[in-house]
């Protein structure tokens, strides 16, 4: 695949994600039609998740029929050229009327994340990352905060029921003990984007799935963040821990999260 082939994919999908954003926003604004159900404890699903994923799958299949597609709702298998879709990341926010949610699409070539696009339509924000070409928010270049003092750091620690609560609580405890301010925003994809634009210093989660991070890792890395090697091993199929942070805090945050030097889901 040539750089021109990647250009074509990037620009086509930037347009597609904007259309998907209108679709998702229409559901968000008509809360009575959201059709909220639960996939499991604290695991939310709405009609919009399926509708947005179907829309993206159909369009991608027409535009790039040779590419594979993996989606949070519909699954799929990886190949050399694969799109990884989260139709609504931050579904628990979406279902409750909180605007902190996004549509996430990443493209991997031979296992390497090349393109990442996040649209947060309720916030009016579109993030784009392209390997080797930088990261933008609404067309303007973004970069990490550059903070080096953890006592001034704002750190987001993602959570799901996939990890025992004690391990999550212990990580939060180490974060506060180190002097960080800790939060959880409910969208792992936007958590990575917020490291990229310096709204936070770090995003970490002890286990997260590929669709949550496939776009955000490109955006954050291109904005200058350290990003742990999420796609090592069987990350695409089974997920992995992730640590993403402004580089000057990497060592301290590896201690806090126990992600990186010592993998936290061992
Ligand atoms: C979840 C969110 C959450 C993260 C979880 C994800 P969903 O995705 O990104 O912030 O902590 O690991 O599963 O359910 O909102 O698509
Ligand atoms: Ca998700």
What do you see in this structure?
- The protein has 266 residues and is α+β, with helices and mostly antiparallel strands.
- The chain folds into 2 domains: 139 residues, Fructose-1,6-Bisphosphatase, subunit A, domain 1 (Fructose-1,6-Bisphosphatase, Chain A, domain 1), CATH 3.30.540.10; 108 residues, D-Maltodextrin-Binding Protein, domain 2.
- It is built from 9 helices and 14 strands.
- Strands 3-4-5-6-7-8-9 form a 7-stranded mixed sheet, sandwiched between helices. A 5-stranded mixed sheet has the order 11-10-12-14-13, sandwiched between helices.
- Helix 1 packs antiparallel against helix 2, helix 4 packs antiparallel against helix 9 and helix 5 packs parallel to helix 7.
- It starts with a helix and ends in a 9-residue tail after the last helix.
- The relative contact order is 0.14.
- The site of calcium ion has 5 residues, from strand 4 and helix 6.
User: Do you know the CATH topology of the largest domain?
Assistant: Fructose-1,6-Bisphosphatase, Chain A, domain 1
What is the number of independent domains? Answer: 2
CATH class of the largest domain: Alpha Beta
Strand percentage: 25-35%
Number of continuous helical runs: 9
Number of strands: 14
Distance between the termini: 36 Å
Q: Kindly report the average pLDDT value.
A: 93
- Sheet with the most strands, sense and barrel status: 7 strands, mixed
Q: Which percent bin holds the helix content?
A: 25-40%
């Amino acid at each position: 695949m040539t750089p021109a082939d990647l250009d074509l994919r990037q620009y086509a999908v930037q347009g597609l994600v904007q259309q998907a954003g209108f679709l998702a926003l229409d559901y968000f604004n008509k809360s009575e039609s959201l059709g909220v159900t639960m996939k499991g404890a604290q695991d939310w699903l709405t009609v919009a998740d399926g509708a947005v994923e179907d829309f993206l799958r159909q369009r991608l299949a027409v535009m790039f029929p040779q590419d594979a597609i993996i989606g949070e709702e519909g699954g799929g298998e990886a190949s050399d050229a694969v799109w990884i879709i989260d139709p609504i990341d931050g579904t628990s926010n979406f279902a409750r009327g909180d605007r902190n949610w996004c549509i996430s699409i990443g493209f991997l070539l031979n296992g390497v994340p090349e393109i990442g696009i996040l649209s947060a339509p309720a916030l009016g924000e579109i993030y784009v990352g392209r390997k080797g070409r930088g990261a933008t928010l609404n067309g303007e270049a973004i970069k990490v905060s550059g903070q080096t003092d953890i006592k001034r750091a704002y750190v987001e620690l993602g959570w799901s029921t996939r990890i025992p609560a004690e391990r999550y609580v212990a990580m939060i405890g180490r974060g506060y003990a180190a002097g960080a301010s800790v939060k959880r925003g409910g969208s792992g994809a936007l958590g990575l984007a917020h490291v990229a634009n310096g709204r936070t210093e770090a995003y970490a989660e002890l286990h997260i799935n590929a669709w949550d991070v496939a776009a955000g890792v490109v955006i954050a890395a291109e904005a200058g963040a350290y990003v742990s090697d999420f796609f090592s091993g069987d990350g695409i199929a089974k997920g992995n821990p992730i640590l993403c942070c402004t580089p000057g805090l990497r060592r301290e945050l590896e201690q806090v999260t126990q992600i990186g030097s010592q993998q936290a889901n061992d």
